[in-house]
Amino acid sequence: MTATAPRGLPFLPVLAVGAFAIGTDTFVVAGVLPEVARSLSVGIDEAGWISTAFALTYAVMAPVLGALTGRIDRRTILLVSLLGFALGNALSALAPGLGLLLAARVVTAASAALYIPAASAGAAALSAPERRARAMAVVLGGLSAATVAGVPFGTWLAADLNWRATFWLLAGLGVLCAAAVAFGLPSLRLPASPGLAARLAPARDPRVAATVATTLLFMTGGYLALTYIGAVLAPATGGNGSTLALLLLAFGVTAVAGTTLAGRAVDRWSPSPVLLVSVLLLGAAVATLPLTRGHLATAAVALAVWGFAGMATQPPQQHRLFGIAPQSGPLLISLNSAATFAGIALGGWLGQQVLRSADGADQGLDRLGLFGGAIIGLSLLVALVATRLPAPAAPAPAPAAAPAPAGVSAD
Question: DSSP per residue over 67-124, as a string?
C-alpha cells in the first residue's frame, strides 16, 4: 500500500491529528481540574475522579474492544471512535454535575481506547515493513505533541472562558478528525484469524505478557512522580506557575523528539536496544529527582531527559507487539495501551501512599523519585527478560490418518 490515501490526504497526519485530540483530552484535565471543582462545588479530591475514571476505563476497555473489533475495517473503527470521542466531550461540556461528568468521561475514554490501537495498527499496516516503527511513531507523536500545544491551549481556554469551552473545543476537533478519516483514508482490513479465540491466542504468548508488564512498570514508576510534578518541582520554580509551564514545555518538546527518533532508530536497528536505552535514561531521570528538583537548571535537564526517554519507550513496544502477531495487532497494541493507562492510575495512587507515609512533605516528595526510579529499574529487568524470550514452538502437525481397509468407508 502507498503512504497516501486514494482521495489525496496523507494518512499519517490524519491519524496523528486524531491522536493529538485524544492526547489533549487525556492530559488537559489536570490543568482544568481546579476550575471544574469550583464550578461544580466539589472538593479537588472528588473532582480528581474524572481523571481516574478516564484512566481506568481506558485500561479496561482497550483490550476488550481490541479483541472484539479486530476483524472490522480500520476506517470504520476510527470513525466510530472519533464520533464517540466528540460525543463524550460534548456531554462533558453539558454535564450539570459531577456524576454526569464522570459518565461522560467514561464514554470519552472508551472511544479513546478504541482509537489509539486502531490508528497505530492501521499506520503499521499501511506502511512498508522497513518504515513500520516510523509510521507508528508519527501517530504517537500526536499524543506527545498534545503536551506541547494542546494542553497549554486547553488550560488557557479554561482560564480565559471556562472549562466547558475546553471540552467543546475537543468535541469539535473530534468531528473534524472524523471527517478527515471518512474522506481521506482508504478502507483497510487487517489480516485476521478466523475467530475470536484465534485472535486472542497471541495474548497468551509469554513475550506479550513480559512486554506489557514492562510498559505497566515503567509507566507506574514515571507517574508516581509525574502526577505530583508541580509539588515536586516547587523548590526549583518557587511555586511560579509560569516557570512550571516552561519546564513542562521542555518536557513536551523533548517527548515529541523522543517519539520521532525512537521510531527511526527501531527501523534502523531493532526494538530491543532502543527500549533498553530509553528505560535506562527514564529511570535515571526519575531516580535523581531528589538531587535535581531543587534548582531550575538541573530540573530543566531532568525533565527534558524524562520527556525524551518516556516517549521513546513506546515505538519499540508497539513495534515488538505488532511483530509477534500482525493478525492480532490491534488487540496486542490495545493491551499495551491498557498497561499505559493502568500505570498512570497506579502510579498516582502509589504516589499518594508514599506522600501519606512520609514524615514530612519534602521527605515524601524526595521518596517519589526514589520509589519511581526503583520501579522503573524493575521494568528494565523485565524488559531484558522479554527481549530474550523465544517464540513458542509451533504445534506439531497432526499425523495423517491411516488408509481405510479395502471395502470400508472412511466415514
Answer: HHTTTS-HHHHHHHHHHHHHHHHHHHHH--SHHHHHHHHHHHHHHHHHHHHHHHHHHH
